[in-house]
Amino acid sequence: MSATLNSGAASIADPLSAVGFALDESVLQQAHELALKSQRPIITELQILTGIDPRQLVRSLAQIFDLDAMETVDMLGLVPAFDLFPLSRALQRHCVLLREADGRLIGVLSDPFDSDLQTSLDTFAKCPLRYCLALQSD
Length: 138
What we know:
single chain, 6 helices, 5-stranded mixed sheet, alpha/beta
């Protein structure tokens, strides 16, 4: 399992009691193994395995990876950077670059386990990004 987001992430072995289900290393490993068999994303397997509400799962994973969780209402207050990362690519990759009012960029990921998402956003942004995690549907 590759957890590449390197923003001072907390240990994934720390259980998150707030979700009522220990999202610990063994659960993450089990989801990873299921994802290899099913060819579905780890985050999808975690949802199926744990039954955690998708928004709560995103918040929990954001906490594990030391990211902010972002919802649609948060994204609406920012400007899409489609000049850097086109809408067609954002839809295909399930991630987006957004601009804050001061011009800083935010990379919004839908799957913290997919290292290609972060690499793709880094490549197009060509500057440091703050990363957030959101539901794919947001």
